Amino acid sequence: xxxxxxxxxxxxxxxxxxxxxxxxxxxxxxxxxxxxxxxxxxxxxxxxxxxxxxxxxxxxxxxxxxxxxxxxxxxxxxxxxxxxxxxxxxxxxxxxxxxxxxxxxxxxxxxxxxxxxxxxxxxxxxxxxxxxxxxxxxxxxxxxxxxxxxxxxxxxxxxxxxxxxxxxxxxxxxxxxxxxxxxxxxxxxxxxxxxxxxxxxxxxxxxxxxxxxxxxxxxxxxxxxxxxxxxxxxxxxxxxxxxxxxxxxxxxxxxxxxxxxxxxxxxx
Length: 268
Description:
It is a single chain. By secondary structure, the chain is α+β, with helices and mostly antiparallel strands. Helices cover 19% and strands 41% of the residues. The chain has 2 helices and 16 strands. A hairpin with a 7-residue loop joins strand 13 and strand 14 (182-189). Helix 1 (2-24) runs antiparallel to helix 2. The protein is globular and about 50 Å long.
């Protein structure tokens, strides 16, 4: 019975290891809807993937195989053969974390942009804040606790910083000014998590708002993580969890082999 338990444990750990490796061979894609007053259907390679997708929605990450994907966006309920209002081709690589954002340009026209998210490991006690300007609005400054965090951010640019975990009063002001056009809004940043803040909508029609995407599992816990230049750690070529599972699986297999040998020795 002990031998059987050890073998089952080894098999379980090996399967977990395979799952970790398989996950690393996928691309993770989050879809963000930042076009106000427009429900849409999202097609991936000709297949309707998101139906009646509403403004202000941030999807859970979709796990996709690496490769080239044709993305088309049509008004909700429109025929699959109708002309899309937006389309692009996304070339996904293994291990990438990508956000696909339907939004407005600075002058209010629909646009579709892809951003590759930074998933490098964080230093102890740090969170990552990324701000993306995807709204029909001029360049802005991002304020955190009344201090300027980002200056002159224009559509469709982004800015990011690794900051101490905590709660920040985030506000958005026209570039060079201090009076917010949005906020302040409290945003709690947990250590080891990436936060992507999207400014979407339109200032002129009062649909301007913020959407938030979270990317967990980036280290940054109180025990710390290996840091690289500038306080950031480079993501290992193989995840630490994968090495841990492999080591445990190897140890369990070795233990199983020893138990089998010992059992056979007793039998013979």
